[in-house]
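Page 47, continued from p. 46.
Same chain as before, 636 aa.
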Amino acid sequence: MIRQNRDRNKLASYYETFSKEKRIDPNVHPWIAASWQESEAAGIKINRFSEAPGLNEVELAILQAHHRTAIEYMQDFSNEIKDFLQEYDLCLLLLDSSCTVLKNFSSPYNRLLPRRIEGRILSTENVGTFSASIAAKYKSIFWMFGPEIWLKEYHDCDSGAAPIYMNSKMSYIVTILTRDYEKLPQDAVISLLMSIKTAMEIHLKQKIFLQAQKAILDAAPFAVYHIMPNGDVAYANRLGMNRLSSIGALHENAEKLPNLNEVVFNYKHTPIYNGFKGVPCTNHEVTWATSINTYEDITTVVPIRDEADDTVNSVVTVTMPIEDLRMLVAHAAGYTAKYSLDTIVGTSSACTAMKERAMRAAKKDNHILLQGESGTGKQRLAHGIHMASSRAAGPLIYLNCNDLTPELLEQDLFGLKTSEDLSHTGKLELASGGTLLLDEVEKMPFQVVEKLAKALKERKICRIGEDLERNINVRIIAAADGNLRRLCEKGLFAPEIFEIISKNIIHLPSLRSRREDIPILITSILNDLSEQHKMKKRSLSEAAIRILTEYDWPGNIKQLQSVIENAFFSTQNDVIEASDINLIGNIKPDNKWKEDRDIFIRAWQSAGGNVSRLANLLGVSRVTLYRYMHKYGIEK
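Result:
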């Protein structure tokens, strides 16, 4: 609240009336009146300023460090007007929202306040009525005339205080004390106070914005540079600084950033140079030649134009190494491990030995071959190995070698140039820094196998249709249902790739060879189903568990999963009985297997090709079963 000049003699008489008679004159400003009463109730003597409580030196240093931004701004501001402050003997204070003095910016010759004012708390409870405590309480600018101040030694001074807001919250208070009020008009001091308030709020708002902007840019997964026409780098974010450091471009004086003309040999042939001609570019693949190495980035250049004459005065450049972009895309696409080795359930000696071997293999960086029957959990084990390896932060890419034609499989592995300006990344590049899981690797065509073996040995590839060699850093985990060594001996699999991936061979045991793990697996599958579908937990009766334990499981864990799921969703009771178990999983006797060959084959595979078992499961005689085998062209 800005108040007009008042008669000091009358104000002094109001003060005397209250100090002697404890009576408030009706002409006293209500905020002052309330503060006088609080000062009296707190027992504040009229000359006790020097005894105001405060912080010790350590506490003050910690508080000042916390408010460094505001203090530095006020220091710069006061330095600009120090002659003015000294000429008119002004005392300028910065307080926090609790009225603790953070810094005294007065002239060293000023004697208005104690020398040790910093760290003192100028609240009403400590020093009585003062402009800062009024401004803090009512969150408003306030001008106080000398006779209104509680301490009589300051009755020949005037004092003004203004709250400073950050994000709609009062954070600071600026206070000015002036004794030479006849020489310096009240309006001039209030104008100075308002100027400080406005300028400081703008500065703090901009500071917060710039801090947030810097945090955002430093957290961004790409390098950002602001570049001047002569090639000087005016700004670089955290990743940008890392890139400049990696090519030896940073000076000993870290504040001085490099000139790109001096560190990038082909600078004049990059989109940055064209950016100063007003030519922008978006997501271009750019090669940067430096004394350390040659790098490939995806680069965007935005020219910054002068509003007056539309000339380009600088450019902003955003770059990302192609390897980083691939990893980012891989993670965004969900190419990460879903299972750890701990999720592999089982306590049998066969399962324990497999997990221990997998853990040892994960710690090395050799390629790995997983061999085991279909459904034994090779994909889950591959996920666990990747997660336990030093490549866990990289992508885990999956490729089934039996899903594509030889031509498409080669394109999917190595990438393809489709036009002059467009080239697609293959899975070998996408998995760089991580793991490539090749499922059913025994089905990979010879021409692709030979090319893959060469790429893994040289750690380089060329996309189809390109001559440019690209480095790769990938671990292969190959999964095979059959015995690759025997397939090599028969000439059905290329020995070149077998030699590379067979440094670590892990055999996955069949489910029938680890029957003691079946009850544990059942419990794990049921718990996962309950949690995943937010349904009540269920269990199996002893008779149901006996049936499942005695079964041979030609489809291994995958088939067990299907059977348990079928029983879980088709049973309403909390306990799944033996009668609820259908060992064909989703293939039921009442399905149309008699008319649908695919359904019959699925049932045949579930029974492991055993005629007697399939006849029992389908509820028909062996003679009937042979008739349908003949119908569908299936030989025993």
